[in-house]
Every structure is written in structure tokens, then in C-alpha cells.
Amino acid sequence: MDRRILPEIFLEKLKEMNLTQLGDALAEGEPCVSVRLNVSKNVSAAEVPEICAEVPWCRNGFYLDRRPRFTFDPLLHQGGYYVQEASSMFHSHVVSQLCKDSGLPLRVLDSCAAPGGKTTAAIDSLPEGSLTVANEYVPSRAAVLRENLIKWSSPFTVVTRGDTAAFRRLKNSFDMIIADVPCSGEGMMRKDPEAIAQWSEGLVSECAERQWMIISNLWPSLKPGGFLIYSTCTFNRLENEEMVSRIIEELGAESVAVDVDPEWGIAPGISTPHHCYRFMPDRLKGEGLFVAVVRKEGEWKPFSPDTPARHQKAKGKGKSGRTQIPKEASGWIDSLWAEKVTLYAENDRISAFPAAHMDLLGKLKGEIDVIHEGIPLATVKGRDLIPSQPLALSPLLSQSAFPTADISRDEALAYLSGDAVTLPDDTPCGFVLLRYSGRPLGFVKNLGRRSNNLYPAPWRIKSKL
Description:
Elements: H1 8-16, H2 20-28, E1 33-37, E2 51-54, E3 61-64, H3 74-77, E4 81-83, H4 90-99, E5 107-110, H5 117-125, E6 131-136, H6 139-152, E7 157-161, E8 174-180, H7 193-198, H8 201-218, E9 222-232, H9 241-251, E10 254-256, E11 267-268, E12 276-279, E13 289-295, H10 327-330, E14 341-346, E15 349-354, H11 358-367, E16 369-373, E17 375-381, E18 384-387, H12 389-393, E19 404-407, H13 409-416, E20 430-436, E21 439-446, E22 451-453
Parallel strand pairs: 5-6, 5-8, 6-7, 8-9, 19-20
Antiparallel strand pairs: 1-3, 1-4, 2-3, 7-16, 9-13, 10-13, 11-12, 12-13, 14-15, 15-17, 17-18, 20-21, 21-22
Helix pairs in contact: 4-5
């Protein structure tokens, strides 16, 4: 490939930090491809094409020899793995480290979450029963975030859409906050030509101002004794070490160390006494990333779970006026989950949400736009109760609730494209759960001679193999 032309001022800044070799790696190196497996779905490395090596700092992360056409792998749409840059998988290691002494359920906010890589990494690393709230400001990115988290299939998830200022009013609500803040994107220069084209000293300063505003918004919602994981995908000190120093000095935070293996190639912070971790592509197999952890002063206290009744009426009647939970919906939930979730109706939707966190869900709905919560089980349409795609992929689903039909890869791709799927003649009429490679894929409604495809239209594959 031709050598990338990087901004001269940017290269001078790297030289001032003794990072000349980093500049060469950004100009000439090739980005790698990596995926992280979904541990909750028992996906093995053998099921993902092109896997060649493990990501050292992530037990479920793997490098690939080349980039396959992920769109045409049904396992991706089933939430079996997430395509994520290797350096960013470090968040799974950090969250595991911070949780190892507690073991208690936590409430975590991923404040700038789209498209969902760090959120799903946190979900897999948190103690059982923990709740993750993932927020995104940009509506189109929030929609992608929602889709990715539904496919990852954790019931302990909320997706919100809005400005981080809303979290100022949710004081002392979260045990941990992940803030992968918008930045100047210097670490993405190997992957994204736009990162090179848009870079300027003015952009760096503008990003630093926005980062401080975001952290100032989030800080009141962090509990005393709670952790803030601050990260960027850039290299300059203004957005990295200097921002960490400002958080510590102005907000009274404490720097927290994370255990790392020297063989991983992670560099320390530059000209700082605080614990900082730099991922630089001249030292390791990954793109640019900066991570630091700080702790809010004060004594940490775990939340006290609420235990409301399993069946709960919606707070308002909504446009349909429906407040009763159809008995049919209760039968769709696996018995292992029956006492862990609250069922409720809002408008024409029946949902299940972890009972222990219903109080926080109510507070969130009072302050910010909630676009996904727990597991939406079904939609009421006339006399029909239509099972949802989130239910199909969820661990809540009772495997005996619906007749099933196993389909081939070609049939799976046709289904994911929105096409009709031909079912065996002996398939019962009504809602049928399609399975591919032994895992749920989605629902159809069998009408006898034909079946209606219920896969969500916005998620359908639009390109051709």
C-alpha cells in the first residue's frame, strides 16, 4: 500500500512526545481484524471463520487472518460474536479487575456507548445480576446500539438516547461509569481516512472541551467510591493525561491501577504520575487507545434490590389502554427466569425486566428517552400476541414455548434478508421459531401454504452474497 500522508503538525506533536515510531506505524501499518465471542451463548472459536490467534488482554477475543464478509454469517446476526477492534477489548479486562473483590451486582452506565462494543464487553465481565445502561446521543447511532445489544441478548440492559446532562439529575445511581468519550480520533488513522482529513489542532481543543463537559455531567451520577473508566482513541496529552489530571484535581478523584502483563506491550502514560494505559500500534497488535481509571472519593455502598411483584401494571394506560398481562406471555418465559423478572405492559408491548432494577428503570424514564429495556416479549395486534425478535434471541425464552424448525445456511440468509422460508409440511400452524446451527434465529408465522417472515425490517440484509 502507499504510505499515508499524515498532517505535519500532528507528526511534530508525536515527535515532541518521543513517538516517532508511532507515526511510522500509522503511515504504513495495516489494521487488524478481531472479534469477541459471546460467552452467554457458548460460542466456540471454531465456529467463527478465519480465527488465528487470541487477543492477549481479552479471554474471549480473537484475531482473524483476514476480514470475511460478516454480513453473510448468520452467527453474527444471532449475537454469537461482536466485531471489535482488539485494543478496545481491554475494557473487558478493566471491568473484570474492578469487580473481582466485590462479586455483588452493580449498576453500570456506558455513557457514549454506540455502536456497543464496550457495552457488550462490560456485560460479559460484570457480576451476575448487574445492570448496564447504555446511552447514545445521536439517534442513528442509538438505533445501531439498540440492535447490537438486543442481539447480545442480556436481559439486564437498558438503552437510552440523549444528552449526558440528563444524568446529572440521577445522583449517586451508578457504581461504575464507562466514558469512551468523543475524541480527535488520532488512533483511527490507519483504519479511517476521514480521521486524517479532519484532524487539526482546533479539533483537539474542541474535543477536550466536550470531554470535560461530558465528565462534568456524569460525575454526580457516580456513587461515592465508584469507578470511572475514561478512554479515548487518540494520542495527544490534552485529551488524555491532562484530562485525567483535571478529573483528579478538580473533582477530587483518585487514580486507580489496573494489572497488566508487560508482554502485552501496553505503554504507560506520558509525563504523568497517574495510572494510564496507552495502546499504540507500533508496540502491539491493535489500534490507538488510551484508558485510565479513577475512583470517586467516599465509601461505596451496594444498591438494595427492590423485589416488586412479578406481574406489574404499567404506570399509564398508554394509547391502547391495556394493563393486563396475557397468560400466554408468561408461558413463553423459562422457569429459571420466572422469579427474576417483572412483566408489565406499556401501550401494545409486553416486556420483561429484572425485578431488582425496576426502581432505576423508573428513574431513567423520568429523565431521558429509554428506547430499549430488558426483553420486549411481544406486541399485541388485534387478537394476536406476536412474539418479538428480542425474545427469540433471549435466554428468557422457554425452549418448549414454540414449535421449532431447523434451517440451512442458505435458508437462514434468505430469512435474514426478509424472504419467505418454506417449512416442512408437518410444521404446525402459528408462530414457529427458526433455528440455525442449533441456536434460535427468529420467528415466522406459519399459515400452512406459506409463512410470514417476522424478522425486523430495519435489520434485514440488503446486499447480495
